[in-house]
Amino acid sequence: MPQTSRYSDERVESLLTELANVLEQHKAPTDLSLMVLGNMVTNLINSSVAPAQRRTIARSFAEALQSSVRDESAH
User: InterPro entries attached here (predicted)?
Assistant: First the structure.
């Protein structure tokens, strides 16, 4: 069941496009892009989430990521 977001699709898509453009401008390969995005997630959790909730948020994020990854080829 899809989750409802408090943010508009337009706002999400705009941020996603901007982030993708930065990675593209730097010609970041997939592994570097994933490393940078992972570090960004870690920094956000560590700086914006109460210590008692960090592991729960990280686990929820990881589960959401795994459920959104498709098994079929993206190419």
Answer: UPF0352, YejL_sf
Give the model's pLDDT for residue 3: 63
What is the C-alpha to C-alpha distance for residues 25 and 18, in angstroms, rounded to an integer?
A: 10
Segment 10-45, tens digit of pLDDT: 999 999 999 999 999 999 999 999 999 999 999 999
DSSP string, 7-27: S-HHHHHHHHHHHHHHHHHTT
Residue 6 CA to residue 10 CA, distance in Å, equals 12
The domain spans of the chain are 30-68
Amino acid found at 50: A
Q: Which residues contact 36 (CB under 8 A, 6 or more apart)?
A: 23, 28
49 near 57, Cβ under 8 Å? yes
